[in-house]
Predict the structure.
Amino acid sequence: MAMPLKRRLLLATPLPAAWMSSVIIHNVYVKFYTDVVGMDPRYVGWVYLIFNIWNVLNDPVFGVLLDKMRYRPGKGKFLLVMRVTIPFLLLGLVLMAWTPSSWSQAAIFTVFLIELFLFDVASTLYLISATSYVYLAAPTREDRIDVEVARAWIGNVISAVATVVATQMLVGDAVTERITLNVMLMGVVLVNGAVYAFAAWALRDPPELYELGDGGAAPVTASRLLTDLRSVVRMRAFWALFFHGMLFMAPMGIYFTAFLYFMDHVVRSTGIQATLADTASMLVVLVLLPLIARGIKRLGSRTAMWVAALPYLGGFTLLLLWADTWWNVLLCYVLIMTGRYTVSTATTALDAALIDHNERLTGVRKAGSIASVRALLTAPIAGVQMVLYMAILTAGGYDITAAVQSPQTQEAIRLATAGVPILFALVGLVPLLFLPYDRARERALSEWSRARRPEEGTAVAADTAG
């Protein structure tokens, strides 16, 4: 039986709220700080490298603590954490917009870094809690894929607010006044806050979600934590998904930053043309996404990820060798985003299957701990994409004061935007060879999860705790 539409939409909302914040922080503010605040591109790259290394310290701790946190009657567990962190997320977004351009490079660097640290603490708690909650409330493979499709629609619609504002502000010269830019950014933050509020206060967190497998019922000891860690790192599926996720689409973490530089300095497009290239390509993909989801369910998630590599690599190849106009870029991004969203939808089902598989083996659900182990392993290299991108631009002679970048710089932007993702994707296909979840195994884990979790009353019941 398919999940009711209302529940599906409610469960699809929490993560898109965080995605919108991520677009603002990791994409909009990058170009904002180089082109408006005047921060040297090298410093931007180092800010994001240090920021990701910081995750080594907080992500593992927070993930384990959230798993071990007890359910509080009348308040909940994961949903309670989400509600507490939202004000801090929004405060971080506001503060970053008002850094004066008159400050020294050292002062801008330091303040931006501190603000990112504070934001990341709240963001980490929110993201782990939201992911853990949704995997509990959507117990089956089919439910999770359907929620992911709805999530993609909601996420792209609300993130479009940030991307449209960004392309109008940061591509071309239609808006140049700093106060106007800041007011536009505050409007984006206001919309982001409204989405957070809807997600956190419309959902419910009933106790039946935590009746089986919840780690909050077990004492926290060093021996218990070590046993939990071993149960994760001994799973071949964990390493296959980890290395594929770390490599295949890693450059997509900064894709909109790359898009802005490409449209502004290589294509020399207007803000409207950049907006069309970004939004129209995504609209095509979103229309196709229900069909893509149906194909994933039929083929199995692992096979779907292999198929998705074809349009993904093809789009980047055309972007590298062919795209010179805004409509060329639009066509390239239709292919790229088709591959990207096929992989992300399939990965959601496989990540949940990994958590279910571990719970089936150990009896304890460890969504936060698994996320923590991944963060611990990934954090030292997570900022490499931004450092690499900015290093290529710097080597190509990128000049923040130039109205038109040199041909050498334009080729450097093209290489950083398209060539690097091709290389990472090709290497990232190798781990898929070792992933043990074929269609039959994935379906069996889904049926086990269905029998273990309640299927109704987790998002809409008015008489439950929350």
Summary: The CA atoms of residues 31 and 254 lie 11 Å apart.
